[in-house]
Amino acid sequence: MPHPKKVGTLPVNGGDELKQTNEIGMFIPLLDAIDIQGKDITADALLTQRKLATYLVERKAHYHFTVKGNQPTLQADIALLFQDRKGADFMAVSPPDHGRIETRRIWCSNALNAYLDFPHVGQVFLIEREVLHKKSGKRTHEIALGITSRPPEQASPQQILAINRGHWSIENRCHYVIDWNYDEDRSRIRTGYGPENMSRLRRFAVGILHHFSDGKTSISEKMRHLNRNIRLVFDYLRMTKNSTGHVSP
């Protein structure tokens, strides 16, 4: 019998406050070990923080943040700017995929740069996403606000929309795989740090599987193949002396 799914959950003992503390606290140490110069670092609303924005720009990277209720003043200012918006600065329509057509529109502006209390802002943006489900005729409509350190001369509306879509395609790909292949929501692990640790192990496993993906074999197929041949698991993890550098799917 089908059961409801939650996408993108990361259970942490102690509730949302501890989860937020862990994610914000680990952001900078994680990036310290990575060369991010010239890169666009995307993040959802939880990580839309002034300290993190300053850190990224000081390391000569660029931020691309989603803006929501945890930054209420910033959210209200951007929303007000685009309240009476006219024609979009750029629009993209995806071809029918699994019976749906997705239309994305974006509006960008640097009019608030001198006004906003946020470091190194280059421009703000609003993205409107409309999905038509062809079979049912149902339409869904979403609006997202954001801020980036890249000024208009460094990032066109089309480029900003592409960066945003890239962020969410990675998020959704990981969450979907974990949700459907590991059935995370029905896990019986409930106490201590067990839920958090298991969630991180699942994400680690998905990362390994994507790394060795040939683009033709699905993650579920790979998992079934590895279940039948445990020796290959050690090759994927390079845990034996004769593990090969290339593992066939």
Describe the structure.
With about 250 residues, this protein is α+β, with helices and mostly antiparallel strands. It has 7 helices and 6 strands; from the N terminus they run αβαβαββββαααα. The protein has helices spanning about 15-30, 50-60, 70-80, 155-180, 195-210, 220-230, 230-235; strands at about 40-45, 60-65, 90-95, 100-110, 125-135, 140-150. Strands 1-2-6-5-4-3 form a 6-stranded mixed sheet, sandwiched between helices. The two termini are about 30 Å apart. Residues about 1-20 have low confidence and may be disordered.
Write the layout of secondary structure elements.
Elements: H1 16-32, E1 40-43, H2 50-58, E2 62-67, H3 72-81, E3 90-93, E4 100-109, E5 123-133, E6 139-148, H4 157-181, H5 194-211, H6 219-228, H7 230-236
What Rg is obtained from the alpha carbons, in whole angstroms?
Answer: 21 Å
Termini separation: 31 Å
Major β-sheet annotation: 6 strands, mixed
**Strand portion:** 15-25%
How would you state the average pLDDT, rounded? 79
Strand element count: 6
The helix/strand class is alpha+beta
Order of helices and strands: HEHEHEEEEHHHH
Helix coverage percent: 25-40%
Count of runs of 4 or more consecutive helical residues: 7
Strand order in the largest sheet = 1-2-6-5-4-3
Poorly predicted runs are 1-21
List keywords for this structure.
about 250 residues; alpha+beta; globular; disordered N terminus
